[in-house]
From TrEMBL:
Protein's UniProt name: Molybdopterin molybdenumtransferase
Signal peptide interval: none
E.C. number(s) listed in UniProt: 2.10.1.1
Entries under SUPFAM superfamilies matching the protein: MoeA C-terminal domain-like, MoeA N-terminal region -like, Molybdenum cofactor biosynthesis proteins
CDD domains to which the protein is assigned, alphabetical: MoeA
Role played: Catalyzes the insertion of molybdate into adenylated molybdopterin with the concomitant release of AMP.
Amino acid sequence: MSTLLSFDDALEEIKQKASVRVADHSIGLSNSIGRVLSQDIVAEIFVPPHDNSAMDGYALTIEDWQAGKQFTVSQRIAAGQVTQPLTSGTCARIFTGASIPAGANTVVMQENVQLINGKAIFDEQPKQGNNIRPKGQDIKAGQTVIKAGDKITSMHIGLLSSLGITDISVYAPLRVGILTTGDELIPAGEQLQAGQIFNSNGPMLSALVTQAGHEVTRCLHAKDTLEETETALRTLMLSCDVVLSSGGVSVGEEDHVKGVLEKLGTVHLWKIAIKPGKPLVHATLEGVPFLGLPGNPSSTLVTYHWFARLLLSICSGQKAELPQSYLVDVGFNRSKTIQRDEFLRVSIGEDGLAYAHPQQSSGALLAACESQGYLHIKANTPIEYGCSYSFYPFSGF
Ligand SMILES: Nc1nc2c(c(=O)[nH]1)N[C@H]1C(S)=C(S)[C@@H](COP(=O)(O)OP(=O)(O)OC[C@H]3O[C@@H](n4cnc5c(N)ncnc54)[C@H](O)[C@@H]3O)O[C@H]1N2
Ligand code: MOO
């Protein structure tokens, strides 16, 4: 166990070695949802560009107000219209979104105004700035509104449109290659023969990569031989920015991935003190970053979520951030400790406590589907009823 790298050190090492692998280009804002911004966006205008009314009502100067005074309505300003300076001692009829005329410093909503013979009476003394949305309330010119590395959301598209921006600079999608390995695997749709199982990691990895906004360029499968593994890895290295594989990274004679990596490139780390997912391998193949995920399906899922997701994020130009975690109390005890960081598949009960799924085998995937997230138990830590541990909902990955 002493030769295993700690979870934190492995994360740090992968982060340190990773860099952006994609070029950037300009794209129309309307086509940019989910793309990664390559340059900070700095506002060139104020939003809103002018003081404007938050209500339908009347604009006036508070210094002109007197109890019972009847104000002449000297102009009518709808949204989009050009204003005239407010004539002293009068008020202006104004509508939501319309510019505040020079000289006015408050707006009274029409429900609080009496109209007598076309004149307006304001019963209560208005307050300075009431119902006025000042110029730049939302955004000030010169302000950085989105940082390079952020993924464009629908909110960003609204925000950038409010600045009048039509084109932005984004990174090209990251091209990811996926290799699955194993003599026993056949694709869904074929007839199972004795000793065979269906390949679940290939489709799962493909879906995880696609969901993260990257492009799955090629999915290959290799039998458990050095030759097939090497040929497939060479093919993927040539056409992809990053390569992921599943299986073949443990210590058996049928595990060839690590041997091929040593031949084709440099292995940075192998075997991490985590459960599940121990035999994870990280390498560089002629400049192409590579992560070999262990073949047990839950090990593949866990190592994708914690390591591959981060590597792909950095390579695609995004920030290297782990998902948000929450401290939750647990509803069970486990005195036995292990010398690895553990990622239990758990759900939150109606009592608000976290409960581990009864099936934690790294070969079992249904348990993950029936759970809500990971409980991170640090190495050598017992689990005590009522104590809190970090919970990472699957929705954050
Ligand atoms: N003597 C030792 N044996 C093993 C060790 C060890 O330290 N010493 N580590 C175990 C651990 S932990 C893991 S995790 C596995 C990882 O092994 P590999 O990455 O080499 O994976 P395989 O042996 O190829 O497969 C493991 C398991 O997963 C199934 N599998 C593989 N690929 C897929 C796929 N695409 N879809 C569905 N299922 C897949 C495969 O059939 C095996 O059952 O090694 C332990 N052994
Ligand atoms: O550490 Mo391996 O991933 O479980 O079964």
